[in-house]
């Protein structure tokens, strides 16, 4: 008997015993392991052409068989003559990313990738790729339509689902309100917004989100009461040649802190365009004029005006703050259509302040409301701010659908980069999806409730969950610099009630 063959059989038997979770699927299965071999995502093609995946961590299935792909508008049901696997290729990547700013100077970009080329003999699109990546802190997958692949195909829905293996506990982002949760998966009935953070027993934590959203609507999840199955409810973009979906991401950690500490979302975004130089990007703490309006201190009444701004610049310089943020109404009432964001009320004072701030080493951020941002040419407005020497733009109250807001956000971010402006998106922004890697000037978003004296939300439980839900998506614009919670004695104009916090 061939001893090498016997050795191979014995090794295969040992491997199957050690990976018994997958043994029953081996004839039809493709697997992507994390570099440390602790996580695995398995892809299966069924006889009717439907694709599914399963996810396990440390030899325990956490997401059982769940569907992949799209349902086209021309289809009543998923076609029985669906996708066929035409080719499979894989690669290992062991690179590193050196961000301009963030939690660490060097980030390991280590992953194993599987690319499955799919053929659809039943119609358009004829070809699609499923790309799967396994990292040590999670996995991700996306769909691609090759260039030159026929015509644009209308999509009815995305089939991607998360069929959790147990009735786990979850928390969900909830806009400018307390996060939803803790909530058992079977208690969810309706739509939920990511980040979705999941506690699967005492040893497993997951977070469901997306990365690199180029087109289509931002991710929305949906579940039916009594089930542990969540599906993608947001309508994807139609499948045009060259289309690439957002990455569907499942972050994993043995503690919730691993989720927040992960760089996986950024790593799934591309490097900056080589035409841009971002060496000028320097994030830092800022003083904010909005929450001091009306306060009296040492006989001086603060307001949103030049004399107060000068004092704030002096304070920032003395205390080591890098920036001062000028909020709404500096160029006129922010919701008035005739408030000119370049020539309005205090524009000349602002230009004087920018020069003064430069002398003191303090950069000035300028607020811009969506009303003025859309009525007046945004290209000229942001170029003027750059020419004045502003440090950044805080953009507020963006209108439109979530898909439209994402397109407008991307445009403003690039225009700010062209004019050497940092940018923060405020008031219900599109959720972060790791865009800071491609656009380092896009430092933060109000993916929370920013105002520390927001009485309907700022309780201790808000902070406890924000770290492990909102901040999994990236840095958030939250204004925490308040040293007196009473406020009633400060005579502030817009808010003087005590804060319900500790």
Describe it.
With 502 residues, this protein is of the alpha+beta class. It is 20% helix and 31% strand. The strands form four sheets. The chain has a 16-stranded antiparallel beta sheet that branches. Helix 5 (306-319) packs parallel to helix 6 and helix 8 (378-388) runs parallel beside helix 9 (402-418). It is globular and about 80 Å long. The termini are far apart. The relative contact order is 0.10.
List the helices and strands and how they pair.
Blueprint: H1 3-18, H2 20-23, E1 29-33, E2 39-45, E3 51-57, E4 60-67, E5 70-72, E6 84-97, E7 107-119, E8 127-135, E9 138-144, E10 155-158, E11 161-164, E12 169-173, E13 180-184, E14 190-200, E15 204-211, E16 221-223, E17 229-232, E18 247-253, H3 256-261, H4 264-267, E19 286-288, E20 296-297, E21 300-301, H5 306-319, E22 323-326, H6 347-360, E23 363-369, H7 370-375, H8 378-388, E24 392-396, H9 402-418, E25 422-425, E26 442-445, H10 460-466
Parallel strand pairs: 19-22, 22-23, 23-24, 24-25, 25-26
Antiparallel strand pairs: 1-2, 2-3, 3-4, 4-11, 5-10, 6-7, 7-8, 8-9, 9-18, 11-17, 12-13, 12-14, 14-15, 14-16, 15-18, 16-17, 20-21
Helix pairs in contact: 5-6, 8-9
């Amino acid at each position: 008997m061939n001893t090498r063959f016997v050795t191979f059989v014995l090794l295969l038997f040992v491997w199957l015993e050690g990976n018994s979770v997958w043994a029953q699927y081996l004839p039809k299965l493709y697997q992507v392991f994390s570099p440390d071999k602790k996580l695995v995502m398995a892809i299966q093609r069924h006889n009717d052409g439907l694709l599914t995946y399963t996810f396990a961590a440390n030899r325990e299935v956490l997401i059982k068989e769940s569907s992949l792909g799209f349902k086209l508008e021309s289809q009543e049901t998923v076609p029985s003559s669906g996708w066929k696997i035409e080719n499979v290729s894989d690669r290992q990547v062991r690179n590193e990313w050196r961000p301009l700013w963030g939690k660490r100077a060097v980030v390991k970009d280590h992953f194993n990738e599987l690319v499955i080329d799919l053929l659809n003999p039943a119609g358009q699109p004829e070809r699609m790729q499923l790309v799967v990546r396994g990292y040590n802190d999670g996995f991700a997958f996306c769909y691609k339509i090759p260039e030159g692949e026929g015509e644009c195909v209308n999509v009815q829905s995305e089939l991607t689902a998360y069929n959790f293996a147990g009735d786990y506990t979850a928390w969900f982002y909830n806009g400018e309100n307390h996060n939803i949760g803790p909530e058992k998966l079977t208690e969810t009935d309706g739509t939920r917004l990511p980040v979705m953070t999941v506690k699967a027993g005492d040893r497993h934590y997951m977070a469901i989100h997306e990365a690199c959203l180029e087109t289509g609507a931002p991710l929305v999840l949906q579940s039916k009461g009594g089930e542990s199955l969540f599906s993608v409810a947001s309508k994807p973009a139609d499948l045009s040649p060259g289309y690439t979906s957002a990455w569907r991401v499942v972050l994993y950690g043995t503690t919730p802190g691993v989720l927040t500490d992960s760089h996986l979302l950024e790593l799934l975004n591309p490097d900056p365009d080589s035409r841009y130089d971002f060496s000028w990007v320097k994030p830092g703490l800022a003083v904010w004029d909005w929450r001091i309006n009306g306060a009296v201190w040492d006989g001086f009444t603060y307001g949103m005006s030049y004399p107060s701004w000068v004092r704030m610049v002096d304070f920032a310089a003395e205390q080591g703050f890098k920036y001062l943020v000028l909020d709404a109404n500096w160029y006129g009432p922010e919701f008035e259509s005739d408030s000119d964001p370049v020539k309005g009320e205090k524009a000349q004072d602002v230009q004087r302040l920018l020069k003064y701030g430069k002398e003191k080493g303090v950069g000035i951020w300028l607020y811009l409301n969506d009303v003025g941002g859309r009525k007046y040419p945004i290209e000229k407005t942001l170029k003027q701010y750059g020419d004045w020497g502003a440090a950044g733009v805080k953009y507020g109250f963006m209108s439109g659908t979530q898909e439209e807001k994402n397109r407008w956000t991307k445009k403003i971010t690039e225009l700010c980069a062209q004019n050497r402006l940092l940018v923060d998106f405020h008031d219900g922004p599109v959720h972060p999806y790791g865009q800071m890697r491609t656009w380092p000037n896009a430092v933060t978003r109000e993916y929370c409730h920013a105002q520390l004296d927001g009485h309907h939300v700022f309780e201790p439980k808000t902070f406890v969950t924000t770290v492990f839900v909102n901040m999994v998506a990236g840095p958030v614009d939250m204004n925490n610099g308040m040293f007196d919670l009473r406020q009633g004695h400060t005579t502030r104009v817009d808010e003087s009630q005590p804060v319900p916090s500790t």
